[in-house]
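We now fix the convention by which a protein and its fold are recorded. The integers have meaning only within a learned vocabulary of local backbone shapes. A record is reproduced here so that you can trace the correspondence yourselves:
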Amino acid sequence: MSLLPKALSKLIESFEKLPGIGPKTAQRLAFYLLHVPQEDLDDFSKSLINLKSNTVLCSVCKNVSEADPCDICKNPTRDKKMICVVEQPTDVLSIERTRKYHGVYHVLHGAIDPLNNIGPDELYIDDLLKRTCSEIILATNPTMEGEATAMYINKQLTTNNKLKITRLAHGLPVGADIEYADEVTLTRALEGRREY
């Protein structure tokens, strides 16, 4: 005999399927929603229902958007000769918050990860290789998978001598203590040093 109503149990199971949500968090979220006014709950459910139907992948950069092409790709003030390659649409949001980058993007929707059966064919790498530009900024995450993806893309693009391929700088974050930095971070910080 279950102590919870079926509707609540099913909701908890649904939350548990989301990345980063464990059983305790799923339970906490479900019980929280029990106390939310019905109107707010209806709005929440409409947002979930409309998520897929009201979004598309931009045919140019593969970012999630309401229209095709996306606002960034169709913006005439963006530098179309500079493409910043990122793993996820959330990476675009992070870079845009800096207000320092004025080029366009290419979203891979993941990184090469052989352990999880994700190879180059599962990502939007071929679409990137078809695009024309003068510089590609490899802004994949500084993880093993992100590095493997950046190396693979670099290898695919090295046949074009006129193309400038750059990588985001890696190193110590602002406010960090050197004493707590790992060897890889310190090595990259030393390699990526610049004149003061």
In short: DSSP finds eight helices and six strands in the chain.
